[in-house]
Design brief:
Elements: H1 13-16, E1 22-28, E2 34-48, E3 54-68, E4 71-82, E5 87-96, E6 103-112, E7 115-124, E8 128-137, H2 147-160, E9 167-172, E10 178-193, E11 196-208, E12 215-221, E13 227-232, E14 238-240, H3 270-293, H4 296-311, H5 316-324
Length: 350
């Protein structure tokens, strides 16, 4: 893998949000005979990590069930994918029910601290069970796109209607070993869905193990990311969309309008001047009502004004503070009358 340009999938939440939907397709043979079902769903979820920490993420589920040459087979994936498209946990199950020698394979991938732990359980026949566990350093997995994350990446690329050149990620091969996967745009084609001809965008994904033959899939998508057709090179089954779904439209956010600042003369504005007069009358009525309910207010102000005119002090503020100090609710208990030789707290000492 040395020298391979690895890219980390760069997808913002605004791109991923329209990709959260469920879809169901059928699997057909080369002659068009139905073989089984294929379904994918992506929804928001919350993942609880070790230590009780929770992280908002995406729950990805994919199932495939079919009968090929009278042999039941299928696979399922359940995974929690972070909003950075990192795999937090993934359960993958594959089975082929041969009569003489059934095969059942389970792969569990989970992120633990700074490592990605992989556990494989392979059951062949009735009693042969093989268990293998190993791990990878997460720091060395920059650009890893698991099978579950791949479903989200494909939807994003399909909505963009473009795949950058040399788009290469890390991936798991069939043995859960790290290898590379290459994404290539296949252009646009016409496809009949039900009775409607639609334009689909093709993306090819090739998983290239260090040893062995690459596995290649060809995906064809509608404009909103719904899968219209999937072909695995070398497989007799094709996943096909039979009924056109309601396409998901994303509303374009219009730019916020910009209003020019205008000088405002409220006295010339009839509406604002009317509101001013209404508010003025409301305040005046409220003040008059309060004064009527408290006749002691007039007596108190009259006493203060009379004493002020008699004394004619130079410092009116200090005089007012000394006059009203005995009426303070937080005044410490004591005599109401102040001794003539006691200094006032409102005057500076000389």
């Amino acid at each position: 893998m040395a020298g391979v340009p690895l890219r980390w999938p760069s997808c913002g939440e605004e791109e991923l949000s329209p990709c959260l939907f469920a879809e169901s397709l059928v699997m057909v043979s080369e002659s068009g005979q139905p073989l089984g079902q294929f379904s994918v769903s992506v929804q928001p979820a919350c993942y609880e990590e070790q230590g009780g920490q929770e992280e908002d993420c995406y729950l990805v589920r994919a199932t495939s069930q079919s009968t090929i040459d009278e042999v039941p087979c299928g696979s399922s994936i359940t995974a929690y994918i972070s909003k950075r498209l990192e795999t937090l946990e993934q359960h993958q199950h594959e089975y082929v029910k041969f009569r003489a020698h059934p095969l059942d394979r389970k792969t569990h991938v989970v992120k633990r601290g700074g490592r990605l732990v992989v556990t494989k359980i392979i059951e062949e026949g009735e009693h042969e069970v093989q268990t293998q566990s190993f791990s990878y350093n997460c720091a060395s997995l920059h650009g890893l796109v698991s099978e579950a994350a791949n479903l989200l990446v494909l939807r994003v690329l399909a909505k963009r209607r473009a795949v950058p050149q040399n788009t290469t990620f890390l991936a798991f091969d069939s043995e859960a070993h790290i290898c590379t996967s290459i994404y290539t745009a296949m252009g646009f084609q016409k496809q009949l869905v039900g009775m409607t001809e639609v334009e689909v965008f093709g993306i090819e994904r090739a998983v290239c193990p260090d040893e062995g033959i690459p596995m290649t899939w060809q995906f064809y998508f509608l404009s909103d990311g719904h899968l219209a057709r999937r072909v695995q090179v070398g497989s007799p089954a094709t996943v096909l969309l039979q009924q056109l779904p309601v396409l998901i439209d994303v509303d374009e956010v219009e730019p916020r309008p910009v209003f020019e600042k205008k000088s405002l003369d409220w006295e010339e504005d009839v509406q604002l001047y009317s509101q001013f007069l209404d508010r003025k009358e409301e305040l005046q009525a409220g003040h008059a009502s309060y004064a009527r309910r408290h006749p002691e207010l007039r007596a108190l102000l009259a006493d203060f004004l009379q004493l002020l005119l008699l004394r004619k002090p130079d410092d009116v503020f200090t005089f007012a503070a000394e006059f009203f100090a005995p009426f303070a609710t937080q005044r410490p208990p004591g005599s109401t009358f102040q001794a003539s030789d006691k200094p006032s707290p409102f005057r500076g000492r000389v």
